[in-house]
Amino acid sequence: MTAIAENKPAYDGQELDLSGKSGARAFKNTLATVLIVLAFVVAMIPLLWILGTVISKGYHLLLSADWWSQSQRGITVRREGGGAYHAIMGTLIMSLITAVIAVPIAVLGAVYLVEYGKGTKAARVVSFMIDILTGVPSIVAALFIYAVWITIFGFNRVGFAVSLSLVLLMLPVVLRSTEEMLKLVPDELREASYALGVPKWKTIMKVVVPTAFGGIVTGVMLGLARVMGETAPLLILVGYSKNINLNPFNGFMGALPTMINQDRTELALQPAADRVWAAALTLILLVLVLNVLARLVARFSAIKSK
User: Any stretches that span the bilayer, and where are they (predicted)?
Assistant: First the structure.
């Protein structure tokens, strides 16, 4: 009664001292905090170093309107001028085709694993194959598409073949991230929908997917960031062109990674070096802009769904 009256917890007649941490616990807490901060600093140092170097060496070409509106047609490695319009459009077109193919397959696959196939043999097989795809190098994916697209079917090296190989790289990233986001949706939301007589497929479309939409968009952006900088599929499946080609089914196409590769062998020449750094900075900015747009879309969708 005394402990209750004094608002102090008691256990078997003995008062519990919860006034502060013990010396050992305080030391472990401080040590863990210091290690986490150090790990963050160590991770940020190379990131800031790379960003600072790319920005300082490549920003001046991006300030020119020609960089965003002209191609490299007629420009040699020793000559200044031209732009990256052909490479920017090529990168965006091939990435868009990749996303159009990979995202629906990945989202539907994640829905199957979480909502329908939980614990089944088929789901285990699908999960195992996704784990294998996660570790496939980009050059292996490119060689596989080369064997099918060019060797077996006899088609030409085109931008669409690059997109097919990038699908193999983007698919596991988006599927795994979507799967984890769907698992985080509380079962209470599903059960409440079922209790109202809503069919399972409609519950998934109207409740589960919208709830996890922000995380799904983040996974898509991670997948796009992974594939936009790949070079091996571009080198194997489509030739680099300095001309503007917006048709992914006909002819060679320019892309930012292959534009960098084109001039990297002549870094001793200042015009070539400037284009390499500017193309790298342009690629970083493209990924940044896509991520910002995706965040805005996810936030707008979350507000509308309330």
Answer: 31-52, 87-114, 126-152, 158-175, 207-228, 276-298
Q: How far apart are CA 69 and CA 83, in angstroms?
A: 7
Rounded CA separation 237/141 (Å): 11
* DSSP, residue by residue, 239-286: ---SS----TTSS----HHHHHHHHHTTTTSHHHHHHHHHHHHHHHHH
Nearest to 75 by CA among 274, 282, 286: 274
In the chain, the DSSP E strands lie at 10-11, 14-15
Query: What six digits make up the tokens of 89?
Result: 């459009």
Q: Which residues pair with 15 in a beta bridge?
A: 10
Tell me the per-residue pLDDT of 120-129, one tens digit each, with 9 for 90 and over.
888 899 889 9
Compute the chain's Rg from CA coordinates.
26
Rounded to 5°, the CA angle 190-195-201 comes to: 50
State residue 9's pLDDT score: 52
Token pair of 59, please?
A: 């920003």
Architecture per CATH, domain 67-301, reads as Orthogonal Bundle (1.10)
Phi, psi of 11 (to 5 degrees): -145, 115
